[in-house]
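Section 3.1: Structural characterization of target chains.
Under the original work plan, the team committed to producing a structural model for every single-chain target entering the pipeline before any wet-lab resources were allocated. The record below documents one such target. The sequence was received from the expression subgroup and is listed exactly as submitted; it comprises 114 residues.
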Amino acid sequence: MLVSNLFVKHKKADPRLIPAAFVALLALFVIIGESKPVMGLIGIGATVILAGTLVEIMRESIWETYRGSYKKQKGFKGLWVEPNKIYYNINVWFLWPFVIFMGLLCLYAAYILS
């Protein structure tokens, strides 16, 4: 039985908890930063850099998933939530690289403070 499970292809888990984990980690490091600013800056910087890097690496998959889920979506459909290549390019080329830059800035500030 155990050997046969090695050859069974399992469905990948849907990463629904990742945005909540990202927000929880940021909140945790903000709270830590109240008492120990250097530790808070290091945690915020590392979390933001990791999140930005993962979004940049998975950008095509995220785009395709969003386009597919938008077609199946019921309820509010409008100009601001519809998949638009302009919004995609703004996110990929400006927003997430800026987030990564801010993470690097947090790490640099922590280095200067220590």
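The mean pLDDT is 86.
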